[in-house]
Amino acid sequence: MKTIIPPRPETATVLEEKAVRRSDIFRWLRLILGIGLLGTGIYLTWYRFGRVVSRVGYVNAPLIHIYAPMTGVLHLESLQPGQQLPQGTVIGKVNNEKNPQLELDRQNLTSQLQIAKQKLQNLEGQLAQRQELQQYLAKKADQQANLDLDFFRTNLERSERELRAAQAQLALAEKEFNRFSSLAAEGVVPPQRADQALAELEVAREAVATRQAEVKKALVNLQAAKAGLQIDSARTLSFPALRLLELEREITDLQKEKKAVKTTIQQLEQEIKTATRQLQIARAEEIKAPVDSVVWSVSLKTGELGTHVGAGTPLVELVNCQEVWVSALVAERANRQLAVGQLARIRFLDGTKRVVMGRVRAIRGGPGRVRAGIDVAVPPPELVRNEVEVQLELLGQGVANSQSQNFCGVGQSVEVEFLAGEKQ
Fold first, then answer.
1. Which of 84-93, 253-262, 311-320, 368-377 has the lowest mean pLDDT?
2. For residue 332, how many other CB atoms are within 10 A of its CB?
3. Domain annotation covers residue 176
4. Beta carbons within 8 Å of 388's beta carbon, 6+ residues apart
5. CA pair distance 299, 68, nearest whole angstrom
6. CATH number for 394
7. Which of 236, 282, 332, 371 is the most exposed place for a label (fewest CB within 10 A)?
8. Is residue 279 part of a domain?
9. What range does the domain containing 333 cover?
10. Do 207 and 166 contact (CB within 8 A), yes or no?
11. pLDDT of 41 above 80
12. What's the sign of the alpha-carbon dihedral 341, 342, 345, 346?
């Protein structure tokens, strides 16, 4: 049978102290670990909700579509995607033989122009003749008007003389009537003589009234002649005056016709210029790169003999490397934390760890749900999850260091971190 020896009192105390120290150590370790986990959670929560980071982002640029400018045989240079094209680089040429219909149209237009110019010359001659005759008849009409004034002035003077004579005869008749009336009352002459004197007095009075009416009529005719008017219906306009009215209508019609012919001549000259220009470019026209760009895709290739194409046939798509930007998709709930002009940090996810700065230039809602805006090399995905598209222009060098072989960085994935409260 084994005998158990109880520990000494000193040994039990030491063991208890060691156990307490170990318990304290573990307690502090658990406390430190809990605080660390809590801090980590707080940091992750702030990192997740306190800043705005794009779910996905990519480098983008506008596409330039090159089409055949006219119908003809296309000779396109051997282009490869990623090939760099400085502005003005000739990438192809369309050849076309002289179009007979265009030449025929131009000849017809030229003939019409000659006819119109000849018509204008005839109209100018007719107009000059009418205007010369108008001046001649205007002088004759003035002479006629002066003669009419002299005629009516003479009539007025004659009527006034006749009126004065009638007034003198009336005065004499009144004296004769008064004298024979007195003599008849005294019985010197018979009463019949007094009656005869009275009758002569009445005749004289009627003559004066008639002459006064003639004077008034002559005065009215003179005033009407001075104003170029006609009072007497029996009087008609003179031949110069009538012909002058007809000439004024003819000149007005000729001026209108001349204006219309001039307009026709201007239109024909413009059409001839257009037809000539079309004939000049109908033979051959070069196709050039409009800006510094990179070949994105080639729709067709031509051999040594070329390929017949129609006007507007798609040929090449180019990427405009001068307008590269970054498109970032961000949750719509973060829209209130974004603003145009806000700075952002752009990280390239191609393994280079390159970081560039950018600035928000536009915020577009509903990408993928609407078809609007410019044609781009990388369209937004068709399915998005309540996101907005934020476009950022690159500051500094941006992706300028990218080689043309990788299409100036177009299509590369990036991560965009928007800097709160920082604008430039």
1. 368-377
2. 13
3. yes
4. 329, 330, 331, 332, 335, 338, 363, 364, 365, 366, 367
5. 11
6. 2.40.30.170
7. 371
8. no
9. 49-89+289-424
10. yes
11. no
12. negative
Q: Give the C-alpha separation, 213 to 7, whole Å.
A: 175
Rounded-to-integer distance, Cα 343 and Cα 390, Å: 12
Q: Which residues of 411-422 are buried (b: 16+ CB within 10 A; e: fewer)?
A: ebebbbbbeeee
If you ran DSSP here, which 8-state letter would residue 350 be given?
Answer: S
Residue 354: closest CA among 419, 415, 403: 415
Amino acid found at 129: Q
| pLDDT value of residue 382 | 62
Flag whether 22 is in a domain. no
Q: How many domains does the chain have?
A: 2
pLDDT (0 to 100) of residue 1? 45
Cα(177)–Cα(170) distance, integer angstroms: 10
DSSP assignment of 56-118? EEEEE-BEEEEE-SSSEEEEE----TT-EE-TT-EEEEEE----HHHHHHHHHHHHHHHHHHH
**pLDDT-based confidence at residue 2 (cuts at 50, 70, 90):** very low
Q: For residues 240 and 247, what is the distance between their CA atoms, to the nearest angstrom?
A: 10
Residue 85 sits in the same domain as residue 118: no
pLDDT at 234: 45
5 part of a folded domain: no
Residue written as tokens 């100036």?
408
DSSP string, 168-195: HHHHHHHHHHHHHHHHHHHTSS-HHHHH
| DSSP letter assigned to residue 142 | H
Lowest-confidence segment of 109-123, 132-146, 300-314, 399-413 by average pLDDT = 399-413
Q: Do 359 and 336 share a domain, yes or no?
A: yes
Statement to judge: residues 299 and 240 lie in one domain: no
**What is the per-residue pLDDT across 132-161, written as a single tens digit (0 to 9) for each?**
888 887 787 777 777 778 888 888 888 888
Q: Where are the alpha helices (DSSP H) in 227-311?
A: 239-283
pLDDT of residue 221: 79
Amino acid, single-letter form, for residue 307: T
Nearest to 158 by CA among 146, 150, 147, 169: 150
Q: Give the mean pLDDT of 207-222.
A: 84
Is there a single domain that holds both residue 109 and residue 230?
yes
| Contact in structure between 272 and 106 (CB atoms under 8 Å) | yes
Stretch (H or E) spanning 329:
strand 325-331
Q: What CATH number does the domain containing 133 carry?
A: 1.10.287.950
> Which amino acid, residue 202?
E
Which residues contact residue 2 at a Cβ distance below 8 angstroms, ignoring those fewer than 6 apart?
none
Is 157 in the same domain as 114?
Answer: yes
